[in-house]
Amino acid sequence: MSWAVATVFLNAFAQIVLKFAANQTKTLEDVLPAWWQYSIALLAYGLSVVTWVMALRVLPLSAAYPLMALAFILVPIAGMTIFKESITMPQWGFLILLVFSIVGFALTSDHSDS
Question: Which residue of 1, 65, 84, 99 has the lowest C-beta tally within 10 Å?
């Protein structure tokens, strides 16, 4: 399970770094100065592939993959706190629904490897 959680956090981290880079990249000429941010994001994505493979070694895909939805919770909250983006009340409702869905799926999943 810890490998799957690491994958989620690495993916969320990569999205946040990409947003930082995108905020600095207004034109094609701006890409080069932000190369290091794009490189860090790509590295995080690469590491997330490694952690995902490790997670799949110990978890069934049907139990591991729903955990990836945690990124759909972490990234909007990061957008709100780091980038001062807004989350509407309906979006909050759906984020809460997503939390309950992930928890429900985890509680009803057979975590034995088949």
Answer: 84
